[in-house]
Give the backbone structure.
Amino acid sequence: MEHLNRGGFDFDLCNRNNVLEKTGLKMKGFMKTGTTIVGVVYKGGVVLGADTRATEGPIVADKNCEKIHYIADNIYCCGAGTAADTESATALISSKLKLHKLSTGKETRVITALTMLKQMLFKYQGHISAALILGGIDINGPSLHTIYPHGSTDQLPYVTMGSGSLAAMGVFEAKYKNDMTKEEAIALVAEAISSGIFNDLGSGSNVDVTVIETTGVTILRNYQTPNERKFRNNPYIFKQGTTPVLKQDVAPLSTKVVIEDIMMS
Amino acid sequence: MQSIVKKDLELPTLRNESSNVKGLSHPVESIQLDQGKTEIRLKNFAMKNVFGSHMVMNSEIEKQIYSQFKRLPTLPSSNIGLETILGYDEDFDFGDYLCDPASSEAPLPQLHSAMEHRLGMNSSKSIL
């Protein structure tokens, strides 16, 4: 009946990889964002926070990666799990949402993005390893949702995800209160992420914060940098004469190279 | 008060039809192969319960009509009518940017041999 010839994932190399693995070849790992991501709803908006470390097994692959992704002008999403999966899933849903907005002619709602993400993740049965925190503000006010890799979702006033989620949740459970001000919310989020950075191996480097409110979005990239790398203070500049000069021979360039001026007609 | 809720909804099966998962190189391959069919099953279920089963038949016939408009065997068809009624013109998926079949490296058969095969004219020449 319908034989739409569409693209999609190509599995040609999977068999080859399986055979190689059986012969003993150790496959290259993939980049994960073993991570601390948090979100909090305050009076008038949502604050999202994330650390900036991306790991590849025991190695830090990226010391300053961005984990807070753009979905729409009023919706942002933090991603934990396989870095490629979170980035491609959020980019895909961002494009889908834009098409949807253009066809309906209305402002995007957070639950639309949520439904699209959860349907896609459930369709792939958890193989897309993306644990997301979706936060945004729309006609129904500010809202915050979590999405797990298999497709289940939650709506809560404060959420944490990732390997550092327990450290961050400890901070939230102790200090969260309803109807905080923007400054209180940002401080709380920064404290929760710092707790994840210092107490979890998979999280580290800097704190990223994004504030979403009705008037707009404020992106505070590297809001706190508690792990600054000290720069080297010994430049390799040696003055002439440090190494004794025995002989000096200067040949002007015109003896080796002919320089011509060609008139362009 | 008597409730008129229909308790016996025939829910669509979400199991993939390509059950030979071991033959495939990755479990996601079976998901991808059956993607269209699963979506259609879910849509038909919703349509049947909202509009009635006649609507399902109607849309199936429409799809069959639109899928007849294709180019000759090895040439790429745009399938614009079919994609429009399926809703793919206003949607975005992995298939829209990954592994475009127009730029695949697999060699296509010759158009003439494909047409001969379709018309049942493929007489193999023998030296005897």
